[in-house]
């Protein structure tokens, strides 16, 4: 955890102790998501979100929560199990009594149990608890039992001590408004190995990471990491071909404008994507997508048909790719496997 703290301190991560939150996530999580809510709250996107919430926003306010001031940072972890488990921790300021009173007034059935010094509330498949230091824990079930106990007693077996996650976070912009890191499990590789449409060797797949920095300009970055550079090139070429093909379909002009901004290229054993646009362009894009999908929906039908046609051609395209050099650079993770 100390190494991860140094990485995030150097790269930036907001005013909250992000690593302290990651330490609450059990080590079996393969997906790590971080949202710098303080950063998000300063953006126009937050105003758009609050408008979209409508009546739900009134309920949040009735709970005594000012979503621009009372929430600081959120961390989520997700497992890749057959029944995925969800772990969440939110740093902020919460009035437990006011929140729970309002939830019960809304008619929700709330189950209350004790775990040590913590009162754990359960509603269907969601469990949560409040701590005196302003952290809200939330989690799903594991074999009918709340994962909350695993979170409250994670100890040293937490995600902040994962060597694989540390290596991945070093490649991630932790100063961004939101970022995510994913360690690819063997089960997913095995499933992908049976899919002829996958344009690379799934056994060489290691991990993926992404970030979104929301300011006057919105910058989105993503990378997929392999053990061989040749596989990264295959994925980059494939994605560029798909983007070019989509520009020739009946997608909305907002989508075409976005596609033209996307840059994808191999970088050693990683396939990297980046796109930068003005915040107002992203908001117009989102509004256009919502309007199209909420309206007649014709473009999504056309896009879906085109995608299926493209998918039929993937296996044919694979045969045309040249074999890559087996001596491609390693990504540095194998020493830790």
Describe the structure.
With 337 residues, the chain is an alpha+beta fold. It has helices spanning 2-11, 18-22, 37-41, 44-53, 55-62, 96-105, 148-152, 163-169, 186-193, 229-246, 253-261, 279-294, 298-318, and strands spanning 31-35, 71-78, 86-92, 111-115, 118-123, 126-130, 135-139, 141-142, 145-146, 178-183, 205-214, 217-226, 263-267, 270-278. Strands 4-5-6-7-3-2-1-10-11-12-14-13 form a 12-stranded antiparallel sheet. It has a two-stranded antiparallel sheet with strand order 8-9. The two termini are 19 Å apart.
What secondary-structure arrangement, pairings included, does this model have?
Elements: H1 2-11, H2 18-22, E1 31-35, H3 37-41, H4 44-53, H5 55-62, E2 71-78, E3 86-92, H6 96-105, E4 111-115, E5 118-123, E6 126-130, E7 135-139, E8 141-142, E9 145-146, H7 148-152, H8 163-169, E10 178-183, H9 186-193, E11 205-214, E12 217-226, H10 229-246, H11 253-261, E13 263-267, E14 270-278, H12 279-294, H13 298-318
Antiparallel strand pairs: 1-2, 1-10, 2-3, 3-7, 4-5, 5-6, 6-7, 8-9, 10-11, 11-12, 12-14, 13-14
Can you count the helices?
13
Tell me the total number of β-strands: 14
**What class do helices, strands and sheet pairing give?**
alpha+beta
Shape: globular
Q: Report the average pLDDT across residues.
A: 82
Q: Can you give the helix content as a percent range?
A: 25-40%
Oligomer: single chain
Biggest β-sheet: strands ordered side by side in the sheet:
4-5-6-7-3-2-1-10-11-12-14-13
* SSE series: HHEHHHEEHEEEEEEHHEHEEHHEEHH
Strand percentage:
25-35%
User: Which regions contain 5 or more consecutive residues with pLDDT less than 50?
Assistant: 295-332
Radius of gyration, whole Å: 22 Å
Main beta-sheet annotation = 12 strands, antiparallel
What is the distance, rounded to the nearest whole angstrom, between the alpha carbons of the first and last residues? Answer: 19 Å
């Amino acid at each position: 955890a100390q190494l991860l703290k140094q990485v995030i301190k150097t790269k930036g991560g907001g005013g909250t102790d992000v690593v302290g939150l990651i330490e609450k996530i059990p080590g079996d999580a393969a997906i790590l998501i971080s949202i710098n809510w303080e950063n998000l709250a300063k953006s126009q996107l937050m105003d758009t979100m609050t408008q979209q919430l409508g009546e739900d926003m009134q309920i949040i306010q009735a709970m005594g929560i000012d979503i621009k001031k009372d929430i600081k940072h959120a961390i989520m972890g997700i497992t890749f199990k057959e029944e995925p488990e969800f772990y969440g921790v939110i740093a902020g300021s919460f009035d437990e009594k006011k929140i729970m009173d309002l939830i019960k007034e809304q008619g929700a059935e709330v189950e209350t149990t004790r775990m040590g010094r913590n009162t754990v509330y359960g509603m269907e498949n969601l469990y949560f608890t409040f701590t005196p230091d302003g952290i809200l824990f939330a989690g799903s079930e594991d074999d009918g039992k709340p994962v909350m106990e695993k979170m409250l007693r994670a100890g040293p077996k937490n995600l902040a001590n994962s060597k694989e996650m540390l290596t991945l976070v070093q490649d991630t912009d932790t100063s961004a408004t939101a970022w995510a890191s994913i360690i690819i499990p063997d089960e997913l590789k095995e499933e992908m190995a049976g899919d002829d449409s996958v344009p690379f060797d799934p056994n060489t797949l290691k991990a993926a990471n992404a970030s979104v920095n929301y300011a006057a300009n919105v910058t989105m970055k993503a990378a997929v990491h392999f053990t061989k550079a040749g596989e990264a090139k295959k994925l980059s070429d494939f994605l560029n071909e798909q983007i070019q093909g989509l520009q020739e379909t009946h997608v909305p002009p907002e989508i075409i404008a976005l596609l033209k901004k996307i840059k994808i290229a191999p970088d050693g054993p990683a396939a990297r994507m980046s796109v930068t646009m003005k915040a107002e362009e992203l908001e117009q894009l989102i509004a256009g997508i919502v309007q199209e999908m909420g309206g007649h929906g014709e473009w999504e039908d056309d896009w879906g048909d085109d995608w299926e046609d493209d998918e039929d051609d993937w296996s044919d395209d694979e045969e045309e790719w040249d074999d890559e050099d087996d001596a491609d650079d390693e990504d540095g993770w194998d020493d830790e496997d």
